[in-house]
Design brief:
Helix content: 25-40%
Radius of gyration: 13 Å
Order of helices and strands: HEEHEHEHEE
Distance between the termini: 28 Å
Oligomer: single chain
Length: 127
């Protein structure tokens, strides 16, 4: 049994295949997701798991060189949460953020019910 880190098997398995430049999307429960094997749905009920908890867990396991949020999230608790984790997000329209879903290597749906609680994380390298 793993001692630390992400315990969810599908999330853990997909995180281990990430490489430089791959996108990981963490979304709220309202994001229209593609019919894709990249999606791991963690949503249990509204609010669980929270966006910020999933973001923190992923950031503890993955090297991130960039992030992207929707302009609609600017000046909200969502932007505060992303910046609070040491990220300096690029800002795009919500429509542009949704377009990134098609190329994401991993999409994690949370139970978050806060509008525009979505982030794209661009993987970096540790060396």
């Amino acid at each position: 049994m793993k001692k630390t880190g992400i315990l969810n098997g599908p999330v853990n398995a997909r995180l281990s295949t990430l490489g430089h430049g791959h996108l990981v999307m963490i979304t709220d429960c309202g994001m229209p997701l593609p019919d894709s094997a990249a999606v791991v749905d963690l949503a249990l009920v509204k609010g669980m798991p929270r966006f910020v908890d999933v973001l923190r867990a992923v950031l503890a396991d993955v090297e991130v060189e960039g992030s992207i949020i929707a302009s609609e999230a600017s000046g909200t608790a969502v932007e505060d949460a992303v910046r609070g984790e040491g990220l300096a997000p690029e800002i795009v329209s919500h429509e542009e953020l949704k377009e990134l879903l098609a190329g994401a290597r991993l999409i994690i749906r949370t139970g978050e019910a806060t509008p525009f609680a979505n982030v794209a994380l661009r993987c970096g390298v540790t060396f």
